[in-house]
Design a protein that fits this description.
Radius of gyration: 21 Å
Strand content: 5-15%
Shape: globular
Bound molecules: pyridoxal-5'-phosphate
Oligomer: single chain
């Protein structure tokens, strides 16, 4: 279904990517019903193997969702009460939530005004002697300067945990994200670039000890191969077999879908007027996968309303920076001006693999008009 003039364009449309795998998934689900292997089993192991290979890591550990992937990594790294973790203020709440679920404290970092991602400078500004790690978030499917961030983290003795929940397949200087830090965490929430038919997630890592702890932790702290021996404090956060089947089918199409997203994003960049709706910048080393197409506008509510009246759906990622949310204000050290200003200006435009260039053209034309009008108002 390609968007055309006059027809409404939803912010996100999962119709085509769902139909694309429907038959294959139904066939393999029938096999799963036959084996009655509903938790764990061959389909989960096969997907984990392929996803690790895709990310360029030795291990992938399927989890129930991306939030659990993050919080189990912090716990498995021994990060807990008394420890602090640097988190960019401009992220989905789950990054900060996961730090707190592990019993640690988030220290919020501001972001770069053009990329809206964490930088070595904002990381250093947020540091305290209790910081043990930094959550590097590949927000919007874009990659921050990983060389500089890894060097800064190493200088301060910080572990790097990548929150790649919006960046399946994104690369930094040719190498896939998730493989740079001690671990990379993914969400397979349905709307993500690689999405299940429900909740799911994964951790990727090349650290075998960490992988082993995570496999045990997601399964009630069981010893490998044992049913009744629980040797660490775990939880229940396994990847469902029915979801592994969906993810396996979609993973084979992910490269093409990401390529389509990049082409559509490039068209947006070309058509949008940088004076009225500047696009969030992509760094030269970043090969982003455009989970979200984010621009900045003045008078956002009016622009959104104008687009909505033309049948165009938009989103906001995110209207409130984490350090100003009620559960996290107690951890805020002071204002983070770039993140706070961005929260009032960011607007996410429709972007999904089958949006089509006609759709981009229509959204861009309407937005250039609406945004410039709001500028003079
Ligand atoms: C989606 C997301 C998560 C959490 O993943 P869930 O699967 O929804 O728990 C974490 N971080 C970021 C940046 C996300 O976008």
């Amino acid at each position: 279904m390609t968007a055309v003039a006059g027809v409404s364009i939803p912010f996100l449309d999962l119709t085509d990517v769902t139909e694309d795998v429907r038959l294959e998934v139904l066939e393999r689900w029938t096999e799963v019903l036959g084996t009655r292997d509903f938790v764990g089993g061959a389909a989960v192991a096969a997907f984990e193997h392929r996803f690790a290979a895709f990310c360029g890591t030795r291990h992938a550990i399927g989890t129930a969702n991306g939030t659990d992937a993050l919080h189990m990594v912090f716990r498995a790294l021994g990060i807990g009460p008394g420890d602090e973790v640097v988190v960019p203020a401009n992220t989905f709440v789950a990054t900060a939530e996961a730090v707190c679920l592990a019993g640690a404290t988030p220290r919020f970092a501001d972001v770069d005004p053009e990329t809206l991602l964490i930088t070595p400078e904002t990381l250093e500004a947020a540091l305290t002697p209790r910081c043990k790690a930094v959550a590097v978030v590949h927000l919007y499917g874009q990659v921050p300067d990983l060389d500089a961030l890894l060097a800064t983290a190493e200088r301060h003795g910080l572990l790097v945990v990548e929150d790649a929940a919006q960046a399946h397949g994104a690369r930094w200087n040719g190498r896939r994200v998730g493989s740079f830090g001690v671990a990379g965490c993914f969400s397979f929430y349905p709307g993500k670039n690689l999405g299940a038919f429900g909740d799911a997630g994964a951790v990727v890592t090349s650290n075998s000890g960490l992988a082993e702890r995570l496999r045990s932790m997601r399964d009630h702290g069981r010893e490998p191969g044992s049913h009744y021996e629980h040797t660490l404090l775990g939880t229940n956060s396994r990847l469902d077999t029915v979801q592994a089947v969906v993810l396996d089918a979609k993973l084979r199409r992910l490269r093409d879908w990401n390529t389509a997203r990049r082409a559509l994003a490039a068209a947006y960049r070309e058509l949008l007027d940088p004076e009225v709706a500047p696009v969030v910048r992509e760094l030269p080393g970043s090969h982003g996968v455009h989970h979200l197409m984010v621009v900045r506008v003045r008078d956002r509510e009016r622009v959104r309303q104008t687009l909505a009246e033309a049948g165009i759906g938009t989103g906001i990622h995110y209207p409130v920076p984490c350090h100003l949310m009620r559960p996290y204000v107690e951890f805020a050290d002071g204002p983070l001006p770039v993140a706070e200003r961005a929260a009032t200006e960011v607007l996410s435009l429709p972007l999904y693999p089958t949006l089509g260039f006609a759709g981009v053209e229509r959204v861009a034309t309407l937005l250039n008009e609406a945004a410039s009008r709001s500028w003079v108002a």
